[in-house]
Amino acid sequence: MELNSNMRSSMVQAALFKGVSILLSLAYVPVVLNYLGDYKYGVWAVVLSILSWISYFDLGIGNGLRNRLAEALASDSPKTDARTLISSAYAILGVLVTAIAVVLGLGITLVDWSALLSAWDVGENLLCIMEISFLGMCFSFVLMLCNNVFYALQKAQVVNLMAVFQQATMLLSVWLLSLMRTSDLTAVAVLYICSNVLVYGGFTVLVFLRNRAIAPSPKCIDGRVAKDLGGLGIKFFITQIATLVLFTTDNLIISNLFGPEQVTVYSTANKVFTVIISLFAALVVPLWSKTTVDFARGDISEIRRTLAKMYRLFAVAAVGTALLAAVFRPLVALWLGRDLGFTWSLILMMGVYAVVYMWNTIWSQIINGLTLVDFMVVVACVQAVVNIPLSILLATVCGFGIEGVLLGTILTMAISSVTYPIYARRVLVKAERASA
Fold it and tell me: Which DSSP string do the residues of 177-241 spell out, in sequence order?
């Protein structure tokens, strides 16, 4: 049996929008770089990286809503009404974000940002830029909850469409700024926040206008539901932080062991293979909520059929990764106009990394969809603890260099590559026997 038409359509549209999003992000870099100049662009890049960490401060409330809402929508007699879930999620996130905004908003004023970012010559008020960016990001938290509503409605493609609109808005606004022949980092920060508010606010209104029965209402807020979402969200949050440690420490390790020049080589190679990883992830993302829905309905056979399709998709992606590795050097030389000295061992290992990552992507969607969060937390924490010492050991003691850092990450990822399928299959078999 083929995948149902809704999921096929969602996968195709998600991949299409993701591709457009990648192109827009590539086009945005030279525009904002030319507008700000090398120095201010570097400062802005650091600010964005700080904001990316702050984005995890929702404590997993969004992912908790995603699973509980998908379960409620799939059931004829849900434990909790969908509207109550959404109303309670917005309420708890609103309280949480307000508290964070007040505490850290005041804390930001105590930091010497020029010293912290080594940005002595930026020529603008960095404190003002950080306050605008941080407080705007806090407000965006609440609006971005609509992402998880769309996921629960099995409309993952809309989330990628929002990213297209957001990046297109930023690209257009910075291009218009560049016509003024100025270099205003504060203006870029304001436009970044405004693009988030405009796009996510607009789509929030849209989703609830089209689904009035689940639109949030103060009357539907339930403290017990908010507590359940918060408890589940904390588990997702721990997993997110552990995963963040796993995938964001390689550059730091390489910089400390081998110098910033090697980070350029490593990160550039990673960026190339991330393109195929991102496209694959866009296709697989609908699997999370679909698994939640199918499991809530007791349709284990449909989960197995969907998995069979994912395996075939994975095989195609693996072949594509091998072809990318084969043409990597001439492709990067065409893109950058020069050779950064990539070794074949790094290229091949980066290909292995991409394949393992995509395999993990499939099973992480299944694990998330089945709400096996306790197991996921344990595995993620083990990986976070193991990754850094293993990478350093392979890079230095074993003498593998930057390839050793990558090998450490691959071997750490292998933990979930093996345990996720085993545990998920055991749960599915148990559920199948219980329903027989």
Answer: HHTTT---HHHHHHHHHHHHHHHHHHHHHHHHHH-GGG---GGG--HHHHHHHHHHHHHHHHHHH
Which of these ranges, 84-88, 180-184, 307-311, 371-375, has the smallest mean pLDDT?
180-184
The predicted-structure confidence for 379-404, as pLDDT tens digits, reads as follows 988 998 898 899 999 988 888 888 88
> By C-alpha distance, which of 363, 367, 358 is closest to 278?
358
How far lies 138's CA from each of 52, 55, 166, 280, in Å?
A: 12, 8, 17, 30
Q: Which residues of 235-266 are buried (b: 16+ CB within 10 A; e: fewer)?
A: bbbbbbbbbebbeebbbebbeebbeeebbebb
Tell me if residue 135 falls in helix, strand or coil.
helix
pLDDT one-digit tens code per residue, 68-79:
888 788 776 666
Tell me if 117 sits within 8 A of 48, measured CB to CB: no
Distance CA 230, CA 372 (A): 16
Nearest to 419 by CA among 378, 386, 389: 378
The dihedral built from the CA positions of residue 263, 269, 272 and 278, taken in this order, carries a sign that is negative
Show Cβ contacts of residue 350 under 8 Å, excluding neighbours closer than 6 positions.
269, 270, 272, 273, 325, 406
CB atoms within 10 A of CB 378: 14
Question: % helix / strand / coil in the chain, to the nearest 5?
Answer: 85, 0, 15
Q: Count of alpha carbons within 13 Å of 32, Cβ hemisphere only?
A: 27
Instruction: Find out whether 377 and 243 touch, Cβ atoms under 8 Å.
Output: no
Specify the pTM. 0.71
- Calpha distance 205→193 (Å, rounded): 18
Q: State the angle between helix axes of 344-369 and 402-435 in degrees (0 to 180), rounded to the nearest 10.
A: 30
Q: End-to-end CA distance of the chain, in Å?
A: 21
